[in-house]
């Protein structure tokens, strides 16, 4: 699992670009895919102190010299099983972050 201060630009169906911060990336041997969790740069927490987090699978572009997620293509998560696995990974990540903050 990797995380850091990386950014990606996502183009929506209307051609609008939005900048997102990458929360973390990971690979799943079970699904044979790489995944990225990300949120809008400058996102405000809601009343419950939460930020909407997006998840996608991604493929790296071998033509690109950029080895980050930004050098590849985002794809939608396809199955409920994938969503369950992503949710489990996110909960583990957030638990580890909370433990690190307590130290």
UniProtKB/TrEMBL annotation:
Residues 55-79 are annotated as: Disordered. InterPro entries: UPF0473. NCBIfam families: PRK13678.1-2, PRK13678.1-4, PRK13678.2-4, PRK13678.2-5. Belongs to the UPF0473 family. This is UPF0473 protein BCM40_09275. The lineage of its organism: Bacteria, Bacillati, Bacillota, Bacilli, Bacillales.
């Amino acid at each position: 699992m990797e995380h850091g201060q990386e950014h990606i630009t996502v183009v929506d169906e209307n051609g609008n670009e939005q900048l997102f911060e990458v929360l973390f990336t990971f690979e799943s041997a079970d699904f044979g895919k790489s995944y990225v969790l990300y949120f809008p740069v400058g996102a405000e927490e809601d009343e419950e102190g939460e930020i909407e987090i997006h998840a996608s699978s991604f493929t790296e572009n071998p033509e690109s010299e950029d080895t980050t997620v930004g050098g590849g293509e985002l794809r939608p998560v396809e199955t409920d099983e994938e969503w369950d696995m992503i949710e489990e990974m996110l909960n583990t990540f957030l638990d580890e972050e909370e433990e690190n903050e307590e130290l």
